[in-house]
Amino acid sequence: VNNQAPELSPEARRIISDARGADDPTADDQSRVKARWLASVAAVAGVSSLTEAARAAGGIGWGLKVAGAALVMAVGAIGLYVLPSDVGRDAPQSAKSATGARSAALHGRFEKTPTGEHDVLEGDAVKGNARKQSAVAQSGAPAAVASEAAPGTPRAAPVIAAAPSVPPIVEEVPLAEAAQPAPSVLEPAEVPTREGTPLDVGVEAPATEAPAGLTAQESAAVAVRDTKVPRRGHVAARAKPSRASALRAAPPAAAEQSPVAPPAASSGKNANGQLGEELSMLSEVRGSVRDGAPDRALEQLTRYRSRFAQPILGMEADALKVDALCKAGQREAARASARAFQNDWPGSPLERRVSTACP
Amino acid sequence: VIEDNDSCATPEQAFEQHFSMVWRSLRRLGVPAAGLDDAVQDVFLVLHRRWADFQHQSSLRTWIYGILVRVASDYTRRARRERARYSPETPDLESSAQSPDQLYQQREAALILRLALAQLDDKERQMLVLIDLEERSVVEAAEALGVNLNTAYSRLRRARQSFEKALRAAQAKRESREPAEDSSHLTESNGE
User: Fold this and answer.
1) Cα separation of B43 and B40, whole Å?
2) Does the CB of B143 have a partner CB in chain A at under 8 Å?
3) What's the pTM value of the predicted model, to 2 decimals?
4) Cβ of residue A29 closer than 8 Å to a chain B Cβ
5) B17/chain A closest Cα distance in angstroms
6) ipTM of the complex
7) What is the pLDDT of residues B125-142, one digit of tens each?
8) Using the beta-carbon criterion (under 8 Å), do B10 and A21 form an inter-chain contact?
9) Is A129 within 8 Å of chain B by CB?
10) Residue A30 is nearest to which of B19, B109, B138, comparing CB atoms?
């Protein structure tokens, strides 16, 4: 064992030391990214909180914009998924303010992103949602969204139920409103006043036909109501078996309580770039495994592998492969895959799950 | 370093605590400025999604390194595909000429550093960034990168050698372009 490496030369150390701090982010960078992250999380995982997002945004301007964005998602989702239920009662009125908030949010975002490239990237994450929601908002409060020409007001559950690979429904909606003045930015940000009501929507809601609807409902409710900082375990709890019936969740061997992270049912396309694509492909795989179509899952995994030479979520894909093989009755192969998994991903958080997936 | 990370109870806390490190490391691992926001966000999205799975088998920070290294290599690969090869952008250097000396020196060093890092292969760069820039232990780096300790050490040896060489080349390149007033200091102050 040669546990030695030459020290760096003094000159190299000088350069490193001189450069210290040069690549550090500014406080603005941090608020901006955090705001976006939380917004994506809200969209992707169905977990977030307005106030947290607003607080994260730091500056009042960003706070409002972010709160607006989160609100849009929340309200949109409510309009979309929850209208049929009693929670839906609140949708129309909130939807109205959401429109303002949405354009404010988009507005802010575009101001904030000087480069074209960024616009596009962010657009994927935020516009996608905002648009989707806005189309929804339209159904709730047509007057408020007059400027918006949503082709075919989407109906909730079907759209998302089909989800993982479905592009954002309203992809085509022009973003005209982004250019419009944002009416009363303040109002929308203030709207959600129902905090404090602990919510347990979703967990017991009937799920199987419109699983994603459930998910979205839950997430909407969470986003609107849960103004507390999500606690550790919070996320997990929601992602766990209680939700197994929901589209996003657990692999069949939900035996072990760590499902391969909750993927984004409705979010695939909304997350940025490759990660988003991977998310959506893997949630299809998961869906296939769950629906008892392991062969299809294996095909999907093959496609996934050829699509991404170096996937970000390769570990999760490998874990799913074990599940799929096992379910397909190829127990020997499953066990071999499980062993390969331990080799390839030493210390993986999924290790335990994988090793017990196919006893 | 003060941060003792395992105290993070929520993804948000993890974000607060590790954001700078993630940002900086992604940058140094070669993620282009234009993609930095997204790359950082990706890291924390993965973190958020896997939060429930994280079982404290390693430290949170180590776990985050593992994620960010993968995200970074994805981004740099993509960037490399777009341009023929990854080359650090220089725009911020143009303006730096007017900056106060110290700032200039910092930026110049940062540029040279980035130029040099760009010459390393991915694995060397990861090792160097974790160990010499982020000042993590070899053990931690090995864990984050999923390699055994011997591999980590030999990679570190190669990384440091390549880095020294790349650094000299980068300095030479910078000086030939715009001789800095303290160039003597920059070049061979410490004959090895």
Assistant:
1) 5
2) yes
3) 0.44
4) yes
5) 11
6) 0.79
7) 999 999 999 999 999 999
8) no
9) no
10) B19
